[in-house]
Design brief:
578 residues, globular, 21 helices, Ribosomal Protein S5, domain 2
Length: 578
């Protein structure tokens, strides 16, 4: 039975405090806290028109900064979004305030800030109230009153059950009644994750450069090369989409450079840095000194220059494009790939295969290479996007560097060329005649011919299985987790941005795909759906906020337990990490 979702028209703002809960659920690894810094440029009100004497201005900014700081153990630390909102308003009241800048940098760097001596939530709330009253004394100043409305909203998020709550609610009602409404939409930037587990390192984004010993060659065979790497990116509405971005490698001769220096031209995370280290080790083993030059800066440019980029799934792309500098082998511009790669040249499992195939199609790629361990992901693409997605692309497994190398080069083996040509004939026929044409003996014969020439052609294998009645009806284990986790993330972003429609769509999609989810994952889906439904519905009539929070906390723990129980099964762990 489908879980019943009661879509109430009300969408309470207080649900935003549970966004972090969803982030915790969807992580299969050590939990990471995500801090989203504020946009300090977006106009909320005419900040330059605010009128406050220097004492009131300093007091209000100080109170807002206090909201953003860490508190002592007696008081729980404030939720990240509330901190960012407080800094956003403080920066508009006093754009040159050093404390605002310092706290913002501390939160961006580590997700923590220095504690303020004798800090207490009740004390900070009183200071906020004084600052708001100072703003509202200028009854004819629109900017003051708009700013006051935002400060009151922060105060209610900051201390929802404090001694001043009734006063703040009265002010909020008065300001709203006079047309001074608050909207935080678009004020938060992309999240910066900081791993808080003692077993993992912090997820920082830094400049990364790595050395490789030089050799005897006078120069690289190629000075520049590019390849399409596949990833999954979160959209502003919280939804996820496959992305295909170029990785461009440029070798620049430098007089003062010893050996070879590989350098990203943007900040990246530690996993991506580790991936580069493995590829350099692989290149040192693969190539002798006769084709390795010295005295070069090798610049690595990523297509997603404005994002925070991390993860090991670009390893295969890095290996192929760097290798082409040494060998001179040009890469097929219609080829795209994803997958980790170890120092011995073996590819490794990744997530989001269906989305990445979608991204490759949108980029007009015709050949995609994925890790052998992700072979079931092509069936996921079939189930989620229909047969049409597989008729537009050739998806191959690549278990190691050599297989990836053979697929990616412009000069391909004749059997590979033939298999792609035969598959194109089948794809054109099925596109014209419909999927029932797959059952025709001649079509099956052609698909078998494709697999004889290229046994790792996944699209041909899936279509032949379908033609023979071997229709997979559920997503792979990893695909099931991917779909649930991505929709939970979208739901959380919808709450965060105050978008009831976005959150509603995420819940509806989870309902729609229940029959596709691997049965082993259903307990996790069920508990997650109960949780998000409760969050969307909000407090029951007469329910106190503390009781609502306790109820949501219990539902959250149920979802965590369900996922933990699944991941305690050795067979499932093995299947997820093959």
């Amino acid at each position: 039975m489908k879980l019943f979702i009661n879509y109430k028209s009300r969408f309470i703002k207080s649900c935003a405090i549970f966004t972090a809960t969803l982030v915790m659920i969807i992580s299969s690894f050590p939990v990471a806290a995500a801090y989203r810094p504020p946009d300090l440029e977006k106009e909320l009100f005419a900040a330059s028109d605010i009128k406050l004497n220097k004492f009131d201005r300093a007091g209000l900014v100080g109170a807002l900064v206090s909201v953003a700081r860490d508190f002592n153990k007696e008081d729980n630390n404030v939720e990240f979004n509330t901190r960012s909102y407080a800094l956003a308003i403080a920066a508009r009241i006093d754009k040159d305030n050093s404390k605002v800048k310092d706290i913002l940098e501390q939160l961006k760097e580590s997700g923590k800030s220095l504690r303020e001596e004798n800090a207490a939530i009740e004390k900070s709330a009183r200071r906020l109230y004084s600052g708001v009253r100072a703003l509202m004394r200028k009854k004819d100043n629109t900017s003051n009153l708009k700013c006051a409305a935002y400060c009151v909203d922060i105060a209610l998020m900051f201390d929802p059950e404090g001694k001043n709550t009734a006063k703040f609610k009265e002010l909020a009602s008065s300001l709203k009644g006079n047309g001074y409404k608050v909207s935080w939409k678009g004020i938060l930037k992309s999240p910066i994750s900081h791993n808080t587990s003692p077993y993992g390192s912090r997820n920082k984004f830094t400049k990364v450069e790595r050395l490789m010993p030089g050799g005897d060659a006078k120069e690289f065979a190629l000075k520049q090369s590019r390849i399409i790497g596949l990833s999954v990116r979160q959209l502003p509405n919280g939804k996820h989409a496959g992305a295909a971005n170029a990785v461009i490698i440029t070798a620049l001769e430098e007089e003062d450079q010893e050996d070879l220096l590989f350098k990203f031209d943007q900040n990246v995370g530690k996993m991506m840095a580790g991936s580069l280290e493995d590829i350099i080790k692989f290149m040192r083993v693969r190539h002798n000194k006769t084709i390795v030059p010295t005295g070069y800066l090798v610049d690595i440019t990523l297509g997603d220059k404005n994002g925070l980029v991390d993860g090991p799934s670009a390893g295969t792309a890095f290996a192929l494009v760097i290798d082409s500098l040494f060998t001179g082998d040009k890469i097929d511009p219609k080829y795209a790939c994803t997958g980790t790669m170890s120092a011995d040249g073996q590819t490794g499992v990744i997530g989001g295969v269906a989305g990445k195939i979608r991204g490759a199609i949108n980029k007009d790629c015709t050949i995609v290479g994925i890790p052998l361990a992700n072979a079931k992901g092509v069936w996921d693409s079939f189930l989620l996007d229909g047969i049409g997605s597989l008729l537009k692309i050739n998806v191959f497994t690549q278990k190691n560097f050599e297989e990836a190398h053979n697929l990616s080069r412009m000069k391909k083996a004749s059997e590979l060329i033939d298999s792609i040509a035969i598959y194109e004939q089948v794809a054109n026929l099925v596109s014209e005649k419909g999927k029932d044409s797959l059952k025709h003996p001649e079509v099956k014969k052609k698909l078998k011919a494709v697999l004889e020439k290229s046994p790792n052609h996944l699209c041909a294998k899936v279509l032949l299985d379908f033609a023979n009645g071997k229709h997979v009806r559920t997503l792979s284990l990893r695909g099931s987790f991917d779909e649930i986790n991505m929709e939970l993330a979208a739901f959380g972003r919808g709450l965060d941005e105050g978008s009831s429609q976005s959150a509603k769509e995420s819940v509806e999609h989870l309902n729609e795909i229940q029959d596709m989810i691997d049965s082993r994952v259903l307990p996790y889906l069920k508990e997650s759906m109960i949780l998000v439904t409760a969050i969307r519905n909000g407090k029951s009539e007469g329910e106190e906020l503390k009781d609502f929070s306790k109820r949501i906390g219990n539902l959250f723990r149920n979802a965590i337990k369900a996922k933990k129980k699944i991941m305690e099964d050795p067979k499932i762990v093995e299947e997820m990490t093959l």
